[in-house]
Design brief:
TIM Barrel; 211 residues
């Protein structure tokens, strides 16, 4: 199972994630987020680290020009679209870079297959997060994972939303052939954007044991 650590704001911690062989590091380019990357990071400083970890830029209803500027400035490997982006918009971005389309699950009876249907041909990965009316960022809470287990979803996806160290056993038991990775964030922090590296190290070790 791949591991994505999102909401990074510290150069030293990015290097530590790279040394831990974490697969993906998320950088949030949404100004209303408390983990807004541009508060503390510059593209050149991130590029200078020469990281092996895949850098994921997280955007919410940004323009194509805004997205491609950060792709160039930060040397992003993947773009995560976490807003109300249409399939047409996703398709335009995917002409330039790999795309993760995020879906916010707000209802207990959401039909996942209908939700993603129009995006099947225009992105590379899905990400499923807990949604809340009027909010675009993560809520730090879980949604009903059973909605995914009973859905077809013919594309690799990340599971997100309030995942904590206590969820390791549930993650190992989660059953879907297209589960690709897990996205962790707020439950592994000492403050917004500052990661608890010991907790991440423990999670990485445990999730990959017998998995």
């Amino acid at each position: 199972m791949k591991i994505k650590v999102c909401g990074n704001t510290d150069l030293t911690q990015l290097k530590e994630l790279d040394d831990l062989k974490i697969d993906y590091a998320g950088l949030i380019f949404y100004e209303q987020s408390p983990r807004y990357a541009l508060k503390n990071l510059t593209g050149q400083k991130v590029k200078d680290l020469k990281l092996s970890i895949q850098k994921v830029g997280v955007f919410v209803n940004a323009t194509e020009a805004e997205i491609m500027k950060q792709v160039e400035d930060f040397g992003l490997d993947i773009v995560q679209l976490h807003g109300d982006e249409t399939p047409t918009f996703c398709n335009r971005i995917s002409d330039h870079i790999k795309v993760i389309k995020a879906f916010r699950i707000a209802s207990f009876d959401t039909n996942i297959d209908w939700l993603v249907k129009e995006y099947d041909e225009v992105c590379d990965f899905y990400l499923f997060d807990k949604g809340s009316a009027g909010l675009y960022g993560g809520t730090g809470r879980k949604f009903n994972w059973a909605l995914l287990e009973k859905s077809i979803i013919g594309k690799p996806f990340f599971l997100s939303g309030g995942i904590a160290i206590e969820d390791i056993n549930a993650l190992k038991q989660f059953n879907h052939s297209f589960l690709y990775g897990v996205d962790i964030n707020s439950k592994f922090e000492t403050s917004p954007g500052v990661k608890n590296m010991n907790l991440i190290r423990e999670f990485e070790n445990e999730i990959r044991t017998n998995n």
